[in-house]
Amino acid sequence: xxxxxxxKSDLNVEAPTLSDPAAVLERRIQRERAARKEAxxxxxxxxxxxxxxxxLGARDRHKLExxxxxxxxxxxxxxxxxxxYELQGFPEDAANATRSWGxxxxxxxxxxxxxxxxxxxxxxxxxxDSINTLDIxxxxxxxxxPTRIQSREDAIALAQSPHPDSHKNNQSIDNPESWCWLHCxxxxxxxxxxxxxxxxxxxxxxxxxxxxxxxxxxxxxxxFSSTLDAMLIIDHHGSIIEANQAFYSLFRLTExxxxxxxxNDFICADEVADRSPAAQGNQTFRSTMHxxxxxxxxxxxxxxxxxxxxxxxxxxxxxxxxxxxRKRADCALQxxxxxxxxxxxxxxxxxxEVVTSMxxxxxTQQPLRVMFLDLDGFKAVNDEFGHIAAxxxxxxxxxxxxxxxxADGLVSRWGGDEFVIAWWPPVxxxxxxxxxxxxxxxxxxxxxxSSIRLSASIGIAETCQPGTDAxxxxxxxxxxxxxxxxxxxxxIQAYTDGLGQQTSHRASLMSELAQAIEQDxxxxxxxxxxxxxxxxxxxxxxxxxxxxxxxxxxxxxxxPLIEQxxxxxxxxxxxxxxxxxxxxxxxxxxxxxxxxxxxSGWQLLDSHLADKLVIQCQQAGVNPxxxxxxxxxxxxxxxxxxxxxxxxxxxxxxxxLAIDDFGTGYSSLSxxxxxxxxxxxxxxxxxxxxxxxxxxLKILKAIIQMSHDLDMHIVAEGVETVEQWQLLKxxxxxxxxxxxxxxxxxxxxxxxALHADMANH
Length: 761
Hints:
- This protein is α+β, with helices and mostly antiparallel strands.
- 40% of the residues lie in helices and 23% in strands.
- The radius of gyration is 47 Å and the shape is elongated.
């Protein structure tokens, strides 16, 4: 047998001998070619297998990256060799993908100070192999200008830089919006030869929105629990799901005792008709508490409907407000707007309404009469005995008039010591009412052991013409009363068209007054204002006139003469000039002080008032903020009056605005709400018997609380006793005027008092 096999093809050639070197070489080459072809075949097969494996790994890696990207997570990695962190966002080719680097110190510096210790502690435990995993939430502030990293060498160089965050971050630590909340998780994946962690990797996720949402939920839950209004959450059947503490307190129930009870179990069902959550929109309605819950209080019920995103049914938030105190306050304030607080008689506004209504019913057979009454000598009583005694006198006389007036008539207080009575005189019979009123006024009154007798000057006007203007009829009665004063007081005067003497006297006074204004002969006193520490904080300027022929004339007399005589402009110019000069003088002593100027209705209706005031302030060299303009409520009752625009302009220029004698006849909540007022001056009549009269005290508290709620300063006028002052302080009144602190005084005396006050404090 041959040592190798021979194919048929080989038989056709001459077989080489063993001694032929060329043949041996040829066979070797053929074997190497065959081996190379086999190796190439095997390499190709292995390459295909490797390529398929790599493709499968790439697909799996891409899926992982997409999953991390969808979950808003990034991968971070740390190795012990270089002490740097790599943060990898996914997908890499996304426009907002980032790669950040930094060492441990840099990372910790970007963590909120309150969270740094937590991060350090957990990281040290991880490096010491005390724990295997990291799972913490920290506040983190990324660099405002991240450096672009191209390579690992760039990252190492940046990490080793002494000032890697060379850019300035101007965001405040205390600003919560400058921080993002990160949830960091990690695990040790490699250890060195000594068994210490050499590589740590994990994920990080921005949970800022989730944190803010949780914080909002906590705040809403806290608000629901702590609000003073009773609140419920009810389902679409009206069953109570949740109730706050205020609800249990309102219905005097043990917390958690409502169970699955219905809203109808607590408020009257007939007033809750069709109030289901399915109803459209939010609703507010009035209801009452079930009689089972005593006392049965009036309630204001508000329903706000909502449907959670993942809920099938609607729900409602129900707010229940106890309206009993508000109703009492509304009634008290309503009464206050219609009545004089001191005498409880109808005020001027009510008088105008009632007389207007009565005038529509007059006939030639049934006329209407109006009596205008002024107490003679009242000012002397006020000066000698003080405001408290004077108020007692006014109340007594008011009761006498009300006792004598017919049931279908009206007794009102016009203001000060003036009263107006409207009544239907008897038909075909003598009218004894004016004489009876006069006799009753003359009856003595005991004031502190002194017997006081007063008289009255009474003017009467009558009309039988339907539709007569109420203001005109009252003015005629006032004219007749003035004539009674001129004729010697203590008498009754009927109005006639020929009151010559009265007209002459009034004309004489007007002429003298015009001359006094022109020659700057009016004097201006100042009554100081004090704070709770009895320090002077300013003063109110008051006009005074001493007639050469008639002596001291009350402002109640000469102010109407100014209006009737067309002296408004010149008088207003004098008031504004002196007021600004006084303000400049007092601010030179103390720049925090101010001077208040009284403005009448006709002044406030002057469209040039603001310009005039600015000019006077400039000439006097005083800031407008040191001038306070006091406005009486009467201006708002004039039909042609619309002072809001002027008041807003005055306020925009810096002037302070105050409403004077609040509640004496024209008070309206809308004035306080809509007008740019800084100060409310409470009329002294409100505090006279507040310490002894519960009703008066409630009204006073309502005014004070309302003013505080509107961020207005409160000044109490006419404070004359320490007891009144202490009561007002306890009610959080901060500013005071009255004889207890200081009477109106010449301006020079006021400056001396101011210097003394500065020296003592």
